[in-house]
Design brief:
10-stranded parallel β-sheet; binds FE2/S2 (inorganic) cluster; binds 5'-deoxyadenosine; TIM Barrel
Length: 359
């Protein structure tokens, strides 16, 4: 068997190597974390970039088995934030020198929805003289829609593959017209062709998921040459069908630890990409995102969703910052990032270095 330190010293990793890294405990885990921290600092530097997150609507046509805002969850109070509230949140981001904003919603494909996102993108560009970067996270759409939003000024797109293992994907996304693994892969391809910086990611600690599946996820991220990754622990939600399988999942602490090892391992595998410290980490450990920043992540998404709606955008249990407003979130994050020994890249887009190299 290879020595752990020899694996760490490599630039490329086999599936077996990745499994070893993902299972590291004790001194090996400490070595993994310090190697990833050093790699991060050497390749992307110490800065952490903010992306102000605006969850502008929780309407969703899909029925992912794990997600709290799935179409069939009738307990959810559905909302659509008003344009002026969304734009006010973006203005806050601009005035506070956040590099960019992320507009996120459930997945809809009506003409109304497509027009509205387009309108919002143009308005955000206008209010910031083109200065604010715009990331969209609005699900699977047609090439025409992706092209249109890109022309209007969006330049990054987040669409998680959730799991790159087809069988697992199909287990957690009932196989009907609404969910198709092929379609999701195709969307990731289209986004890249349209010129977006593309972000994807997976959930960690899902029922039925093995460490090998996670190693395959990392290899998948590398194979599609992504620019940005957001991945966090799966967190059960009582009002979803996957809750029934909670006896199969690891403890919250174990899922959290595994998520940190995924982040550190990904930093070694793809040193120049942007990696977000997922909010779901904070649902398990109050300092979760800062811990991820220490060992490899370089992006944080402070929540700018108007506070009245936050409680209705609960994808999972214990989602943090439900009662805070944008100002409180920023101040709290600033202090936390400093504690993590990093600085915030105010006023910069903080594009993925990987994207800059490949374009
Ligand atoms: N636990 C953790 N993450 C979740 N997401 C949705 N539901 C859950 C859950 N129960 C994640 C998905 C989605 C992103 C917006 O939130 O990965 O892509
Ligand atoms: Fe809305 Fe999955 S439940 S996209």
């Amino acid at each position: 068997m290879k020595k752990f330190e020899d694996i760490l010293a490599q630039n490329d990793f086999s599936r077996d190597d990745l499994v070893r890294l993902l299972e590291a405990e004790g001194a090996e885990r400490t070595a993994l974390f310090s190697a990833a921290a050093a790699r991060k600092e050497a390749v992307v530097g110490k800065k952490v970039y903010f992306r102000g997150l605006v969850e502008f609507s929780n309407e969703c046509s899909k029925d992912c088995l794990y997600c709290g805002i799935r179409h069939s969850n009738s307990k959810v109070v559905r909302y659509e934030a008003a344009d002026e509230d969304i734009l006010a949140a973006c203005r806050f981001a601009w005035e506070n020198k956040f590099g960019s904003v992320v507009l996120q919603s459930g997945e809809l494909s009506s003409t109304n929805f497509i027009n509205r996102v387009d309108y919002l993108v143009k308005q955000i560009k206008a209010l910031s003289n083109g200065g604010l970067g715009i990331t969209l996270s609005c699900g699977e759409q047609t090439r025409e829609t992706y092209e249109r939003w890109f022309e209007s000024g969006a330049h990054r797109y987040l669409l998680r593959i959730e799991s790159s293992t087809r069988e697992l994907y199909q287990k957690i996304h009932p196989n009907n017209d609404h969910h198709s693994f092929e379609k999701r892969l195709e969307c990731l391809r289209l986004l890249k062709e349209c010129g977006y910086q593309v972000g994807t990611g997976v959930m960690i600690g899902l029922p039925f998921q093995t460490t090998e599946n996670l190693a395959d996820d990392l290899l998948f991220l590398k194979s599609i040459d992504v620019d940005m990754v957001g991945m966090g622990p799966y967190i059960e939600h009582e009002d979803t069908p996957l809750y029934e399988f909670r006896h199969l999942i690891k403890s919250k602490q174990e899922r959290f630890d595994l998520a940190l090892r995924m982040v550190a391992t990904l930093r070694l595998l793809m040193p120049d990409i942007n990696i977000a410290a997922a909010t779901a980490l904070q649902a398990i450990d109050p300092a979760g995102r800062e811990k991820a920043v220490k060992i490899g992540a370089n992006i944080i998404m402070p929540n700018l969703t108007p506070s009245a709606f936050r409680k209705d955008y609960q994808l999972y249990e214990d989602k943090p910052c439900l009662d805070e407003d944008a100002d409180q979130c920023r101040n709290c994050l600033e202090a936390r990032i400093e504690l993590a020994g990093s600085e915030i890249g105010y006023g910069e887009w903080g594009d993925s270095k990987h994207f800059e190299r490949r374009k």
